[in-house]
Design a protein that fits this description.
Number of domains: 1
Shape: globular
Strand content: 35-45%
Structural class: alpha+beta
CATH topology: Aminopeptidase
CATH class: Alpha Beta
Order of helices and strands: EHHHEEEHEHEE
CATH architecture: 3-Layer(aba) Sandwich
CATH superfamily: Gcn5-related N-acetyltransferase (GNAT)
Number of strands: 7
């Protein structure tokens, strides 16, 4: 199995198919939280996408928005198909998002995480620190400061 990593190549349909595939494996099923079709459309048109592919299947996705006015990237989605988890794919995709954010002059990457020990540990191991502010009753912000020079 060869995993190919790409940037901004997925179609809206491929993003939608991936999100539908992974939706049940979010802490709270993605389809119960958002209109997945509208979310896929928004990601396709507005987000930067770091993608993992096996043949023609999108098996991993990190989607994030770059805000040039605040010099921050905000990760809105990290997902890997169930059969490919625990293989370092999400870690590689997060690294690609970090590298692209640095290239675009961003100083920070932020994300929201559900108060789940495994998820918080995963993001901590990837270099994110927990910000004490809550974005919702059961969610926290995590962030990584970036060095836009040598990293």
């Amino acid at each position: 199995m060869i995993i190919e990593y790409k940037h901004n190549t997925a179609s809206e349909k491929e993003i939608l198919d991936h999100l539908v595939n992974v939706a049940p494996y979010f802490v709270e099923d993605l389809t119960k939280r958002v209109d997945v079709e509208a979310y896929a459309k928004k990601l396709f048109s507005k987000a930067e996408l770091e993608e993992a592919w096996v043949e023609n299947d999108l098996i991993g996705l990190v989607a994030y928005y770059i805000n040039e006015s605040t010099c921050e990237s905000f990760i809105t989605n990290v997902s890997v198909s169930k059969e490919y988890i625990h293989q370092g794919i999400a870690t590689q995709l997060l690294q690609s998002a970090k590298e692209y954010s640095i290239k675009k002059g961003m100083r920070k990457i932020c994300l929201q995480v559900v108060n789940d020990d495994k998820l918080i540990k995963f993001y901590s191991n990837a270099g994110y620190t927990q910000n004490n502010s809550k974005s919702a009753p059961n969610e926290y912000y995590m962030e990584m400061l970036l060095n836009s020079g040598e990293e």
